[in-house]
Amino acid sequence: MKVTTIGAGYVGLTTSCVLADHGHKVICLDVDQVKISKLERGEVPFFEPGLQELLDRVLKKGTLTFTDDRKTAYYHGEIIIIAVGTPPQIDGSPDLRFLKTALTDISEHLSSHKTIVTKSTVPPGTNKWIESELAQKADRKLFDVVSNPEFLKEGTALEDTLNPDRMVAGGNSAEAVARVKELFSFVSAPWFTTSLTGAEMIKYASNVFLAAKISFINEIAAICDAYHVNVEDVARGIGADPRIGPAFLRPGLGYGGSCLPKDLSALIYAAKSKGINPKLLPAAGEVNDSVTKSYVQRLELLLGTLRQKRIAVWGLSFKPDTDDTRYSPALTFIRKIQEKGAEVLAHDPVVKETSEGIISQPDPYSVLTDADALVLATEWSVFKQADWGRVSRMMKGKIVLDCRNVLNTGEVAAAGLDYHAIGRYQREQEAQ
């Protein structure tokens, strides 16, 4: 099939590369000329495992091209995939400017039938609005709209695109939904078909449930800490219940990134716009905000004060295997301890510099000299394999605060370091 993808971000570029690798002729459109130039040179503008190799392959095959020329892009695609960003606004509602611009462009180039596939995360009712808007500007027979939300995770975007848990398609045209299924015929996952609004709600509800589950286990971890219970035992015990499941039951510094915080705020806004005052959803966000404060307080308690203390921080991205620092709990933690007078030196395996001006040091050990404490903020695998003897020799203090509950406490303790976490009581005691 001939496909046009609008947006060359995580979703748009990953989807374009995968479709092109399966034989579809794909043009990826983006208004950012600098990004397009990089992609034309074969450079992925962000870090995503395996994506560079896939881009190299499809460019060599000639099945994927990039452009900032709208006319060329829109005339090419029989299927148009909308994968533009919908960032949050101050009131929590998503900013749909990029989607509206794409919609205007599409309406101006509808000379033949197009199946418009929305992958962008949009509020309930948006795809119905897209249908209505296009119908006012173009012949209704020239387009169909399908809501096909993505469920990829940064760091595993390729695997999630190739082997998703499920595929969702919402639409008013059975033929259009069938075309989308044909487009992704290489996917073996089950398909769930629903209405346009139903598909939008599935996406929001999925992400918000995950956010709530993370906040739940973080609150349980705090209670376990007070009662000297190992939260990992509790997580295993409740995760064995098939009604609950073990995924997303690891406590830590909280969730971040471009999806969960945004989608939680957006669903709260959507609910209130219909006169519904949700209670559970805001609580998930409040717990997430409080988690970072708890770790700051724990570090302050361990050191007596943070003023003029040198703190080494491992990790800047919001999760491992990505360079995305949007809403990163690591950066929130750093900002809060800096406000209390701490000096911070940080290292991240792929982040070079953050928008806040934090520069990643060359390697994990380069931040340790004269450090009063080491904080693990993002659970990159390289940090789990650290030479703890070397860490101990380089640091001035002995405190290691594991904000992700992933370090081997025995190895840390054997190096003469003082291991600390929240909710990992038994492991922490063993490390003393």
From TrEMBL:
Source organism, top-level taxon: Bacteria
SUPFAM superfamilies linked: 6-phosphogluconate dehydrogenase C-terminal domain-like, NAD(P)-binding Rossmann-fold domains, UDP-glucose/GDP-mannose dehydrogenase C-terminal domain
E.C. numbers: 1.1.1.22
Binding site for substrate: F151, L152, K153, E154, K203, F248, L249, R250, P251, G252, G256, K319
Signal peptide: none
Listed SMART domains: UDPG_MGDP_dh_C
Single Gene Ontology BP annotation: polysaccharide biosynthetic process
Keywords: NAD, Oxidoreductase
Class in the EC hierarchy, top level: oxidoreductase
Residues involved in NAD(+) binding: D30, K35, T86, T121, E154, K262, R326
Gene Ontology terms, MF aspect: NAD binding; UDP-glucose 6-dehydrogenase activity
Keyword Hydrolase applies: no
Active site: C259
Chemical reaction(s) catalysed: UDP-alpha-D-glucose + 2 NAD(+) + H2O = UDP-alpha-D-glucuronate + 2 NADH + 3 H(+)
InterPro entries assigned: 6-PGluconate_DH-like_C_sf (IPR008927), NAD(P)-bd_dom_sf (IPR036291), UDP-Glc/GDP-Man (IPR017476), UDP-Glc/GDP-Man_DH_C (IPR014027), UDP-Glc/GDP-Man_DH_C_sf (IPR036220), UDP-Glc/GDP-Man_DH_dimer (IPR014026), UDP-Glc/GDP-Man_DH_N (IPR001732), UDPglc_DH_bac (IPR028357)
Domain UDP-glucose/GDP-mannose dehydrogenase C-terminal stretches: 312-409
Cited Pfam families: UDPG_MGDP_dh (PF00984), UDPG_MGDP_dh_C (PF03720), UDPG_MGDP_dh_N (PF03721)
Listed pathway(s): Nucleotide-sugar biosynthesis; UDP-alpha-D-glucuronate biosynthesis; UDP-alpha-D-glucuronate from UDP-alpha-D-glucose: step 1/1
Family, similarity comment: Belongs to the UDP-glucose/GDP-mannose dehydrogenase family.
Protein name: UDP-glucose 6-dehydrogenase
Organism: Alteribacter lacisalsi
